[in-house]
Amino acid sequence: MGTQIPTSNDRSRTYWTPTMERYFIDLMLEQLHRGNRIGHTFNKQAWTDMLAVFNAKFESQYDKDVLKSRYTNLWKQFNDVKELLGQTGFAWDENRQMVVADDGLWHDYIKVHPDARSYKTKAVLNFNDLCVIYGYTSADGRYSRSSHDFDFDDEVQGVIMGDPTGSLSSNSERPRTEWTAAMDQYFVELMLDQIGRGNKTDNSFVKQAWTDMLSSFNAKFGPRHDKRILRHRYKKLAKYYSDLKVILQQNGFSWDETQQMIVADDDKVWDAYIKAHPHARTYRMKTLPTYNDLVLIYGNGGDNDIQSNFLQDKDHEADISRKKAEAGKGSHSLGSSDRTRTYWTPPMDHYLIDLLLDQVQRGNKFGQTFISQAWIDMTASFNVKFQSHHDKDVLKNRYKHLRRLYNEIKNLLDNSGFSWDETREMITAKDHIWDAYIKAHPDARSYRVKTVPGYQKLCVIIGQENSGGRYSRLAQCIDANEEIPVLMTGK
């Protein structure tokens, strides 16, 4: 496939692609799930196992120091983002997967902390998982503009309860609650007892029930908890139940009573589902011993108010309809001065590419562009997704950029010695071939280390070839003069 195997001399210039980083993070999450993390790092066998699997995946010959160095780098990245989110006015945007704040706040902060400049435009694609690995709460409702009020993630160290204004509480004001399996089990038993007493109405419990449960809970686990902690845990467990219920409704998934977790018929089922629903990744390795009890607690009427991350609600569809009407009228257009300041993150690119694919499937692409209504629809959906007010020209300009990207990659792959690495999603070639080509074409230097996760889809959208012929075994040649076929997107 043309994958480059680094020697010891090349180790200092290890090119970490998003695909490699995502795989490494999944390996760490698995080792964490197995209990192989001690203190701030993993045990020796965990590093050995992760290295062996990683090298097998990417056909490489790295040593442990390469992975450990990346582990340290990711830890610093996590701490940088966590420090930013602790500042007033900074928030986590789950859709764009980046820290957001007003320009004035960024200007003042960067003036004092110049090293933080990159985070103004940088997407941190795996931040929620880094929160799990490095032992803190995830980018939840205290940070996010778009998350549900119950989206608190306490995979390892528990929930850090925020105050009502959304600011971070200091440890002295509100100590961190570390939820253990024993605490969850006891809390579930308390709730079942209250249900048996008839003290649950609609989607919550009566006031006296919360008082009684808190009293019993504190008698068993200490007096430092209050009702707010139990209520947040109640909502968190509701989210678990709702998410699991949605996954179990999909073909190929089932509940394993022995392991007390969701299992799939094979890895491809999980891979396809996670690709469409990234938030489901954690459930691939997550056990939930109380699931059958949660069915009793939340199974009757709980689904109406507690929506899973994977469900598209009617409000979202209404927003898209409203945005379409606004786009058709030309409202919410950005001025030309604002348009040049659009920061395109990988999630934004991925979403735009999926929108373009959908319009191709609908037959709304003619020649090298799309019909007017297609741009209106895509702009509306895009603005709803990212809570923005872009106009059609912003998306059209990005489409032109993606066309240029595709053509440059295609030109490179037409040269002898270059090939497409499907695993790392980048162009590969031997060093001497790269050196000679870059000497003649200096502008191509970036592609030596650049990943293009959406390239396969761009091949279909732009309609020349789907990484075809000698580029990929997944090839399906598409004649630009033929009618655009119905797409199989893998969903």
UniProtKB/TrEMBL annotation:
Residues 15-109, 178-273, 343-437 form the Myb/SANT-like domain. It holds the Pfam family Myb_DNA-bind_3. The keyword Metal-binding does not apply. Keywords: DNA-binding. GO terms for molecular function: DNA binding. PANTHER family: EXPRESSED PROTEIN, MYB_SANT-LIKE DNA-BINDING DOMAIN PROTEIN. This is MYB/SANT-LIKE DNA-BINDING DOMAIN PROTEIN.
